[in-house]
Amino acid sequence: MGTKDPRVDQYIAKSADFARPILEHIREIVHETCPDVEETMKWSFPHFDYLGSMMCSMASFKAHCAFTFWKGSLIFEEGQASRDAMGHFGRITRLKDLPSRKQIAGYIRTAMKLNEEGITITRSPAEESADLEVPEELEAALRKNREASKHFSAFTPGRRKEYITWIAEAKTDATRVKRVSQAVEWIAEGKSRNWKYER
């Protein structure tokens, strides 16, 4: 029997007005297609696990949503999935941007089969980092600061992920703005997010 995580309810409730119906729609199809799916939160956004392995995830940003399959490289043919944003379906701003319910269910069934067969994929740190989209506010702030932009591009995927996650976890817009400002200041100095604790 599948499980629902109250943190996913909170995540959806805190998302922008345009995003809530999209996230609810994705969640509904995942549970409908895979009754044994288990919800969890990883990297600050909702994930759907099946048989103890990640299957797919969804996320909302300031102006769009993303829907990603963990083993997407084995589900989608070359050029079939969008690389326009973090997920496999580009920047989702309305329900019409998603494939039909039937198509999504088909992708989910393929992902389920991969988990059932125990098929794994090896992902490089760079690929995992690519799944974490740079928040739009941070991206805009980096464009205005050449030194910070240069350092951020040179950071390892892990270091970029630390900043991206920190900003994405902000509970309010005010906290988010403050963190972006602080992040750019530290990045411009070539510092990691946790530089105070490094030796």
Structure, explained:
By secondary structure, the protein is an alpha+beta fold. The protein has 2 domains: 6-121, Aspartate Aminotransferase, domain 1, CATH 3.90.1150; 129-197, no CATH class. Helix content is 48%, strand content 12%. The protein contains 9 helices and 4 strands; from the N terminus they run ααββββααααααα. The protein has helices at 6-14, 19-33, 72-75, 101-116, 125-130, 136-143, 146-154, 157-168, 173-188, and strands spanning 38-42, 45-50, 53-60, 65-69. A 4-stranded antiparallel beta sheet has the order 1-2-3-4. The protein is globular and about 50 Å long. The mean pLDDT is 87.
Structural class: alpha+beta
- In which range does the helix fraction lie? 40-55%
Order of helices and strands: HHEEEEHHHHHHH
* Straight-line distance between termini: 47 Å
- State the helix count: 9
Q: What is the CATH third-level topology name of the largest domain?
A: Aspartate Aminotransferase, domain 1
- Percent of residues in beta strands: 5-15%
Overall, the morphology is globular
SSE inventory with pairings:
Layout: H1 6-14, H2 19-33, E1 38-42, E2 45-50, E3 53-60, E4 65-69, H3 72-75, H4 101-116, H5 125-130, H6 136-143, H7 146-154, H8 157-168, H9 173-188
Antiparallel strand pairs: 1-2, 2-3, 3-4
